[in-house]
Design brief:
With 478 residues, this protein is of the alpha/beta class. It has 3 domains: 2-266, Spore Coat Polysaccharide Biosynthesis Protein SpsA, Chain A, CATH 3.90.550.10; 276-353, no CATH class; 363-467, Jelly Rolls, CATH 2.60.120.10. It has helices at 36-43, 61-70, 87-99, 119-128, 130-134, 180-189, 203-213, 215-226, 239-243, 250-255, 276-283, 343-353; strands at residues 2-8, 53-57, 77-81, 106-111, 138-143, 154-157, 169-175, 192-202, 229-231, 234-236, 261-266, 291-292, 296-299, 305-308, 315-318, 323-327, 332-336, 363-366, 369-377, 380-387, 395-397, 401-409, 412-416, 419-423, 428-431, 437-440, 447-455, 464-467. The longest helix has 13 residues, at 87-99. The protein starts with a strand and ends in an 11-residue tail after the last strand.
């Protein structure tokens, strides 16, 4: 049995404005009707695979459970990292957690934001690497390079290795992301593979590697695992020990130092969607080299990506060549595809200016559903709020605002102080400033309402929670 370990951290700044810190790319629908995270979970399911062990951050814990439920899967466990510390601590936390019940458990560590077109073929490749992992090797997966790519690290095969083999091969070394000339030289040499950042090994093998090469990490992560507590079914790693850990990748901490390495070649389509140029490539350009989403039109364009991510927003390109345009309801990106890796510079510039678009998505996901601001003015705000069937907002009050709710779809059960009533479509209710209130969806379809806020301060942190089924505490998200 193989235990998939899905890593769900990171901010995905190179796919801004669709991917942001508040809602990173693994949860977005970049390639079809499912998110990259959902596609990853589906791919690593079925015969030979256990339910996935998921590592993510606190803001995303309910997004993970919601998206898993949508594809009718249940995780083995969800470990909550107090803050991002890169892949080395995350992988070790998974290994220590699995070791408690099965020291020999085989772990397939995979980022949750990759695109692999042939899921069954990839699973066959994983199975072909099992024997080396069971024998005590650390197996990494290498992708046959399709071009001289400068955005990936590389794996240099040993002299006796065959890059076309369908069995694990000996690995000489890891190579950092190269410049263009070095990337071309490695492509021409024929004995290099892209580093996919996917690994297969037993829990006991990788723990032994940490003991040898990163003992300080092992001590700190073990303390965090030992001090972990269960909260609403999530496993929260102990915060103090975790925050003291070095921020380091597993490549630097372990793989570049270990001797018991093997590489499993994979020769079919793969992408980490590391930029909009990769999205353009994986989406399958038409005969003119264009990729257009719904509500996007290319006129006399060539090698261009046009995407509209906002309902009712049309994007039209005329006479464009090698350009990418991505429009959301609150931001528009326009750049040459050759500058795809510079998108993170835009995020940094916006963050420096204090622009909310740098990190916050216009749709704010909560454990009960989501909301988006439609209009924001001086002393008023209009929101659309969607509440999942059976979900319930916290019992709360506000110091600075009153609210007016109009139900436009479904049915709401509304509490205002001591009064509980059912509000149906086209009905409304007023929530006075300071009133203790909540809403829930007692129905079997999503409930949608329009909320009009008025007051001197409309920030999301003006919430006093008295009761909450999601145990979020006080503040905007708790």
């Amino acid at each position: 049995m193989i235990f998939p370990v899905l890593l769900c951290g990171g901010s995905g700044t190179r796919l801004w404005p669709l991917s942001r810190k508040s809602y990173p790319k693994q949860f977005a629908r970049l390639m079809g009707d499912e998110s990259l995270f959902q596609a990853s979970a589906r791919r690593l399911a079925g015969d030979g695979f256990a339910a996935p062990l998921i590592l993510t951050g606190d803001p995303f814990r309910f997004i993970v459970t919601e998206q898993m439920a949508a594809i009718e899967q249940s995780p083995l466990a969800i470990l909550i990292e107090p803050e991002g510390r890169n892949t080395a601590p995350a992988v070790l936390a998974a290994a220590l957690w699995l070791e408690r019940t099965d020291p020999g458990a085989l772990m397939l560590v995979a980022p949750s934001d990759h695109v692999i077109a042939d899921g069954p073929g990839f699973c066959d490749t994983v199975q072909a690497a099992v024997s080396r992992a069971e024998a005590g090797d650390l197996v990494t997966f290498g992708i046959a390079p399709a071009r001289a790519e400068t955005g990936y690290g590389y794996l240099e095969l040993a002299k006796d290795a065959d890059p076309t083999a369908k069995t694990p091969q000996n690995l000489a070394r890891f190579v950092e992301k190269p410049d263009a000339a070095r990337a071309q030289a490695m492509l021409d040499a024929g004995n290099f593979l892209w580093n996919a950042g996917i690994f297969l090994f037993s829990a006991s093998t990788v723990i032994a590697a940490y003991q040898k090469h990163a003992p300080d990490l092992l001590e700190g992560v073990r303390a965090s695992i030992d001090g972990a507590n269960t909260d609403l079914g999530f496993i929260r790693l102990e915060e103090t020990a975790w925050r003291s850990l070095e921020d380091i990748s597993i490549d630097y901490a372990i793989m570049e130092k270990a001797e018991n390495l093997a590489v499993m070649p994979y020769r079919d389509s793969w992408s980490d969607l590391g930029g909009w140029d990769a999205v353009w490539r994986e989406a399958g350009p038409d005969d003119a080299g264009n990729v257009c989403s719904d509500h996007a039109t290319a006129i006399d364009c060539k090698d261009t990506l046009l995407r509209s991510e906002a309902e009712g927003l049309e994007v039209v390109g005329i006479g464009l060549d090698d350009v990418m345009v991505v429009a959301t309801s609150d931001a528009v990106l326009v750049a040459h595809k050759s500058d795809a890796q510079r998108v993170k510079e835009a995020v940094a510039a916006l963050k420096k200016r204090g622009a909310a678009q740098a990190e916050n998505f216009p749709i704010d996901h909560r454990p009960w559903g989501w909301f988006e601001s439609l209009v924001v003015g001086q002393r008023f705000q209009v929101k659309r709020i969607v509440v999942h069937p059976g979900a319930k907002l916290s019992l709360q009050s506000h110091h600075h605002r009153s609210e007016h709710w109009i139900v436009v779809q479904g049915t709401a059960e509304v509490t205002v102080n001591d009064t509980v009533q059912i509000i149906s479509e086209n009905q409304s209710i007023y929530i006075p400033l300071g009133a203790v209130h909540r809403m829930s969806n007692p129905g079997k379809v999503p409930m949608v309402l329009i909320e009009v806020q008025t007051g001197s301060y409309l920030g999301e942190d003006d919430i006093i929670r008295y009761e909450d089924m999601y145990a979020r505490g006080q503040g905007a998200k708790g």
